[in-house]
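Figure 6 in text form: structure in, sequence out.
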């Protein structure tokens, strides 16, 4: 759950239809158009706050990427985060101890983004810090 710019509660979901959808949990209605860009099932959604105080979404997919979204505009922020060799099952967002912007792109957030993959080999964790920009 996150709070939209108008102060209303919102819920973001990922789906096997390759989209992320935003909902008004009070009415059960979809808000805006689906967020598209993933080419595989969307397994993970995490909400975080950008440096300007607005909500952002981080999504993980079976397309091996993590994407950052601006839910107010429905647009992707920066390029997809890559590096996983298997499906991305989880995404977690956390604040850096030093408080510096550290999740891509530099202006997108005040936190770090980490994700996990389970592949036939070792598990993969990919933390990103200010290396992906448009």
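Output sequence:
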């Amino acid at each position: 759950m996150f709070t939209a710019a108008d102060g209303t509660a919102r819920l973001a979901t990922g789906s096997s239809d390759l989209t992320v959808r935003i909902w008004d949990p009070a009415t059960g209605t979809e808000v805006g158009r689906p967020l598209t860009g993933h080419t595989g099932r969307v397994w993970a959604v995490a909400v975080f706050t950008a440096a300007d105080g607005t909500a952002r979404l981080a999504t993980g997919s079976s397309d091996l990427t993590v994407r950052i979204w601006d839910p107010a505009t429905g647009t992707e922020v920066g390029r997809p985060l890559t590096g996983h060799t298997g499906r991305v099952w989880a995404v977690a967002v956390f604040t850096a101890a030093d408080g510096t912007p550290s999740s891509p792109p530099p202006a997108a957030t005040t936190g770090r983004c980490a994700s996990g993959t389970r592949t036939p080999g070792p598990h993969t964790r990919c933390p990103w810090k200010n290396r992906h920009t448009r």
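Caption detail: The first strand starts at residue 2 and ends at 3.
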